[in-house]
User: Fold this.
Amino acid sequence: MQISADQAETIALQALAWLSGNDELFPVFMGATGASIDDLKSRAADPEFLGSVLDFLTMDDAWVIEFCDSVGLQYESPMQARMALPGGAQIHWT
Assistant:
């Protein structure tokens, strides 16, 4: 299934909201990205930043499952959304 850029941004914003509400994972996300609260506020509409949110989320299958279960998405949706945002295209070396 192909996801539009608008749908991808919506999924990434849902993921950002889910991360910010997760007391254990949110500090890990903030540390891994080096983002500040001000960065989150100012860049939440930036497709490149939203791509980094999905990059972080998709690092762990358990996070993907927990997120998708909480918002009612298919488990493939975060990766499909990532591929629709800047920098998410799959690289083919052949």
